[in-house]
Amino acid sequence: MGSHLRWLESNVSGTPLAHVASLLVLAVSIIFEVTSTVYVGQDTAFMASIPAIIVVVYLEGRLAGIVATLLMAALGLWVRRVLNAQLSAEDWTRAIFLVVSGGLIALVFHRLRQDLRGALEVAEARLAAIDAAESRYRLAFERAALGFANTNRRGELLQSNRRLCEMTGYAERELAQQPLEALVLPDDRDAVRELLRDVDSGAASSAADIRLLRKDGKIFWARLAVSSSRPDEVSTESVFVVVDDISERRAAREALRAQKEWLDLALSAGRLGTWQIDLKEGTVAGSDKFWDILGLPPTPVRRLEELSAVIHPADWPKLAASTKPSSAVNYDVEVRVRRTDGHVRWIALRGRQERHGDRQLRIGVAADLTERRQTTLLRAAVKKRERIMREERHRFSNLFPVITALVKMINVPENDVAKYKEMLVDRIKTLEATHLLLSGHSSISGMLHDLVEQELRPFKETRDITISGPSIVVPVGAAESLAMVLHELTTNSVKYGALGNPQGKVDVKWEFASDGAGDDVVLDWVESGHRNNSGVVRHGFGSMIIGVDGAPLVGHSPKLEISEHGLRYSLRLSRKEIEL
Fold first, then answer.
1. 389 with 359, same domain?
2. CA angle centred on 318, ends 314 and 321, rounded to 5°
3. Scanning 12, 199, 485, 522, which has the fewest C-beta atoms within 10 Å of its C-beta?
């Protein structure tokens, strides 16, 4: 209707035809008014002009209508003047009413024409917008990256875009001649029928992954979505079809699935679990194997604080520190887990720090190291045992040459076999005490103090004895020889010195040399108190051991000073004879 009115306005109003029609209507109206006034009467002459005024206003516009109204009113008054020689009040009233009516008619028609013109402009603007939207839709339909098509309810293709033609290898006219099912692999056609049934039953849309056939027979995966193009509660046969080629995504998904299966197989074979710590939220997520390693029931996510129930208290600070951001990229800690059955397991958490958007995460794997640690500790124990056995064998083998040397060094005093036997047994007992001392220590750290303590222990409760010095380790061979030196000093002190006197005092100390030797340790044996036979120095087996007549069994630079008030013996031990 709007276009019809616009046609009338542009093709009728203001044209010569309109002018002629207006003049004819006006002339007929004037003739009718004059005739009516002369032959019929005056009462209706003015009212008969109103239809003519309406026609003139419609054809010519407001101004022409007003002019026609004034002209008819003036002509009516003139005719009545001629016929009646004068004008009555009724004539003037009718003329005025005609002028007012004609003016109102002109104004009303002019206002209606303006309103109509405005409505036409609005309608034309909307039609133009609809045309533009339709053009854009058609352009988008044709140039879209996805395949688009329209089908009827039976699944027959009506219209297809360029992309769908490229996917299938058909021309648009070829696609319009076949049903949608013809493009689908036979095994997947039931899925297409199901999609169409869903839309037909009222579903807004439905989609499925199916395999499509190209014109050349090749197969590709596509995401097929169908939706009804009808407005609500309006019946239509049109169905909108969207086709997206997902062959590459499908291949990538299959590759990712295969990789995940391989990863799961590797993790399962290695008995590893995966975990993820959200530093911002303070939560930890993990695989079922991860929770199994910790001895907890599987769950998607837990608060990190909940793990304190199973983590060993001494190791909890390591895990609690995981919630604090760090500049270190790699993450590697070992913690102990207390299982519900009471067993303690060693768990290794290894991974790296990553950022996903505004989230900072630590991700990695968890491994149960308990069996490995037990194996390591067992191997270490076996090696330690083997080392101790080697030391024992070496120590035991060293006894034979020492005993042989003892037998050779001891002379038979005045052919007294009993005395010789007593002296030999006494020396062998000294070796036995030293050997038992060395065998009783798994580690010989601080052995020098133990050797001195072993020799003087029987006299510590009854005599004033002081032992002092830094921690010095003496190797096995040197320890046996040093024990014999200490035994000789102890035996001599019991017979002639401080240990044989209740008021005697023995002070044994050692320290690092301060005279430039540096590596030497100086051992001092100092006795205080009355000494018997202070001026006598016997030269025998004992003096040979401590080095009075030559080199001692161990160490070097021995010094012996004897007086009636005591004894002082000094011996130096070199670096090769001790260990720090």
1. no
2. 135
3. 12
Q: Is pLDDT larger for residue 517 or for residue 509?
A: 509
Does the pLDDT of residue 23 top 60, yes or no?
yes
Contacts for 464 with CB less than 8 Å, ≥ 6 apart: 504, 505, 506
Which residues constitute the domain of residue 357?
Answer: 270-368
In angstroms, the CA 274 to CA 580 distance is 47
Measured CA to CA, the distance from residue 337 to residue 335 in angstroms comes to 7
The Cα 75–Cα 24 span in angstroms is: 16
* Domain final residue pick, 251, 284, 313: 251
**Mean pLDDT computed over 448-457:** 84
Is this structure's pTM higher than 0.85? no
At 38 the three-state DSSP class reads helix
Q: For the chain, what is the mean pLDDT?
A: 77
> Please, what's the b/e burial string for 484-512 (b: 16 or more CB within 10 A of its CB; e: otherwise)?
bbbbbbbbbbbebbbbbbeebbbbbebee
Distance CA 245, CA 226 (A): 15
Could you tell me if residue 309 is inside a domain? yes
Q: Which two tokens stand for residue 309?
A: 């129930």
**Measured between alpha carbons, how far is residue 36 from residues 22, 33, 40, 47, 81 in Å?**
21, 5, 5, 11, 15
Gap between the Cα atoms of 72 and 51, Å rounded:
12
- What CATH number has the domain bearing residue 357? 3.30.450.20
Q: Are residues 388 and 361 in the same domain?
A: no
Please say if the pLDDT value at position 306 is more than 80.
yes
Same domain as 573, residue 504:
yes
The proportion of the chain whose per-residue pLDDT surpasses 90, expressed as a percent, equals: 5
Q: Do 276 and 231 fall into the same domain?
A: no
DSSP secondary structure string for all residues of 147-207: EEEEE-TT-BEEEE-HHHHHHHT--HHHHTTSBGGGGB-GGGHHHHHHHHHHHHTT-SEEE
Same domain as 155, residue 118 = no
Confidence (pLDDT) at 5: 47
- Kind and range of the H or E run holding 362: strand 359-368
The 10s digit of each residue's pLDDT in 161-187 is: 888 888 888 888 888 878 888 889 999
How many domains, in total, are found in the chain?
4
Of 127, 159, 184, which marks where a domain is finished?
A: 127
User: b/e string for 153-184 if b means 16 or more Cβ within 10 A?
Assistant: eebbbeebbebbbebbebeeeebeeeebbebb
Q: State the pLDDT at residue 437.
A: 58
Q: Where is average pLDDT lowest: 412-416, 494-498, 571-575?
A: 412-416
d(CA 391, CA 438) in angstroms, rounded, equals 10
Question: Do 442 and 528 fall within a single domain?
Answer: yes
